[in-house]
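Input set for joint prediction.
Command: fold jointly, output tokens.
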Amino acid sequence: MELEEMQTVWSQMSDQLKQQQKLTDKIIIDMTQQKFKNRFSTLSFYEIIGAGICFAAVIFIILNLQKMNTWYLMSASILSIVSLLILPIFSLRSLFGMKNLNLTTNSYKDTLVEFIKKKKQMLLVQQLSAVFSVILIWLVTPVFTMAFNNKDFFQQEHSTGLLIFYALVTIGVLFFARWGFRCYKSITAKAEADLKELESAEL
Amino acid sequence: MHTEQAFTNIIKENEGIIYKVTRLYTNNQDDQKDLYQEVIYNLWKGFKAFRGDAKVSTWMYRIALNTAVLYSKKKKRRGDKVPLEGVVLVEEAYDPVLEQRLKVLYTNIKNLGDVDKGIIFLFLEGRKYEEIATITGLSVSNVGTRMARIKDKLKKEIIKK
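tokens >
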């Protein structure tokens, strides 16, 4: 279809749409209110739950800090607290950044550029979180063992089954992180190409 | 005039714009309904700040296109919707021949990249290059260059078929 023909079809459609205007005041207001409610009821539900779990774990570790009677358990506790606080904060921050783009005053191009940049940031945070989660598994295990059982994880004899379980979990998370990193690379490559195309539009 | 009333009047006068944008950036009616509400919600959010410095149509096109392009880039679709059946998305009212030609037209436009899609939409809406430049954030000369490229792309599509 050539441009001239497109213009004709488009203008025919526009004429028909003008004749069938059917929105009412009530429907318009209902739509704004429903969308407003949806924003708050579903806003980053899983991320907020995840952050809640992390913060609960931080409180639990702090409450049991006096049980950490060796330097390595104390170090593991402090590193766990720092990781459990920082990771969800960064994650939520990048997510809210994506949700709060200024759509009312930004131009179309600025919206796309800003979106691509925020998306890249979010993907980077997700990747770092995946890597840190592997470290976190090994940090919180001795801390929780002491907090729950009053036993030093490193002084205990562990069953082969438990060790295999930890090894499998670590391998699983590593594979997941590697898969995520590949996705990250492919998405960011596309984002970079989009960004270049948009920035070349300024010339 | 009361703010709410002024807003609903503007939406009613320009509902065709929202319909056309939402159809262009979605692939099924469910998504179209969701995007339709999202556009109206964002227009409402921006309405208080809108002081009439720009034309109403420029303001609407900007917010509708921004909302649509972001919507098409995000995967998640959640939340309840106000039923719109029989309100705005009544394609049955169209002439079937026109509807068929519209499908071809939309397919052609949807094959374009994000920037070109926005430009061709505004061009078909009869906007001048200056207004397209204001809405898209491109320079006027760039809009012209891109329009020439879009024409070429469309011609090539015809030759392929």
